[in-house]
């Protein structure tokens, strides 16, 4: 006797539908709860993974050089990263603190002396005359100049306080990320196997290829964007300090921000050249100008070389993904955007190949 299909009764269907809805709802609540619990640690964890992926080849070489002592290698890499972060931060904090203390003492004692502007400043096109007048007013009567721009200075002080708090939080998050990076380096092999397993689970046979693509993209962005930004910042900072620029430490930090954000560093370089020409002799100013113009243009040479190395992708895809990701979700988007667009590009190519194969 043939097997007859069972007809589901309406009450059974309603019961199963309600049960499925409850399970889905509980699962959603659980996932949402887990997300909010882990939310404060998502950004440091993401940065820790990115730093670990970018530095893992160095960790492997150092481990082999130290006689396969993986823990010692991870400790050395983590310690070096902490030194790189804390060293400049400590120096910069000391410089800023000294400048602020001197400024506060001068204001309290009414001894803040601003040198008068050079006459050639008034001859600068567009901004020369108003800049000369304000500079002259500040040199002759600083209190009156402050009163004139009191609303703007009040807004600027609020922005500085907010920015300072954000910078402190960013440094603390970065320190936590470095510690997470060290822990991940200790378990690099198991982490790589986990990434491969997740890739295979998500996309099947292409899991390993796509996992390696994500790793290569992260390293390419780290080399091409962060690496070049650090090179530009170091070269610019050396020039700022040697040329005797005021607040050279702050200018160096601002240069790093511009370079990481992929904004043209000439926004900072050109005014600094103008300042040096107005305060230094011609030879010093000319050398400074040649050096800084080279610093501003060096990313056009290094970025294509470093970013595209080891990637089976057009550099335009990685670059657009990095910039678009940063505009969408901040600095972390440099990496997330590049990875997502790279995967989307590969998925599109795979779809095209299947289409042509079936035609």
From TrEMBL:
InterPro entries: AI-2E-like. Keywords: Cell membrane, Membrane, Transmembrane, Transmembrane helix, Transport. It is a multi-pass membrane protein. The keyword Transport applies. It comes from the Bacteria. It is found in: Cell membrane. The chain crosses the membrane at residues 20-38, 44-62, 74-96, 159-186, 225-243, 249-270, 282-298, 318-343. Coiled coil: none annotated. Belongs to the autoinducer-2 exporter (AI-2E) (TC 2.A.86) family. This is AI-2E family transporter. It comes from Methylomonas aurea.
């Amino acid at each position: 006797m043939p097997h007859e299909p069972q007809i589901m009764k309406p009450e059974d269907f309603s019961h199963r539908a309600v049960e499925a809805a409850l399970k889905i709802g509980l699962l959603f609540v659980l996932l949402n709860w887990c997300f909010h619990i882990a939310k404060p640690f998502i950004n440091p964890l993401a940065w820790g993974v990115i730093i670990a992926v970018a530095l893992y080849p160095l960790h492997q070489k150092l481990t082999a050089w130290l006689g396969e002592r993986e823990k010692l290698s991870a400790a050395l890499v983590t310690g070096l990263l902490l030194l790189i972060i804390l060293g400049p931060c400590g120096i910069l904090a000391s410089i800023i603190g000294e400048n602020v203390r001197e400024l506060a003492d001068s204001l309290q004692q009414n001894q803040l002396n601003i040198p008068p502007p050079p006459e050639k400043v008034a001859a600068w096109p567009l901004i020369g005359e108003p800049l000369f007048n304000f500079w002259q007013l500040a040199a002759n009567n600083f209190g009156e100049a402050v009163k004139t721009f009191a609303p703007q200075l009040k807004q600027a002080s609020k922005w500085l306080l907010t920015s300072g708090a954000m910078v402190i939080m960013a440094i603390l998050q970065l320190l936590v990320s470095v510690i997470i990076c060290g822990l991940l380096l200790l378990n690099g092999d198991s982490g790589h196997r986990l990434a491969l397993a997740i890739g295979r689970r998500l996309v099947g046979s292409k899991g390993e290829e796509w996992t390696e693509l994500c790793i290569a993209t992260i390293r390419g962005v780290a080399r091409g964007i962060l690496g070049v930004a650090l090179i530009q910042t170091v070269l610019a900072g050396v020039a700022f300090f040697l040329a005797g620029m005021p607040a050279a430490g702050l200018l160096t930090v601002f240069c790093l921000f511009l370079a990481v954000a992929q904004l043209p560093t000439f926004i900072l370089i050109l005014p600094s050249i103008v300042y040096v020409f107005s305060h230094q002799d011609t030879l010093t100013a000319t050398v400074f100008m040649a050096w800084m113009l080279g610093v501003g243009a060096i990313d056009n040479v290094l970025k294509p070389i470093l970013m595209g190395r080891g990637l089976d992708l057009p550099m335009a895809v990685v670059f657009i993904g990095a910039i678009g990701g940063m505009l969408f979700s901040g600095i972390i988007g440099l990496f997330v955007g590049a990875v997502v667009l790279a995967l989307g590009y590969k998925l599109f190519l795979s779809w095209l190949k299947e289409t042509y194969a079936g035609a």
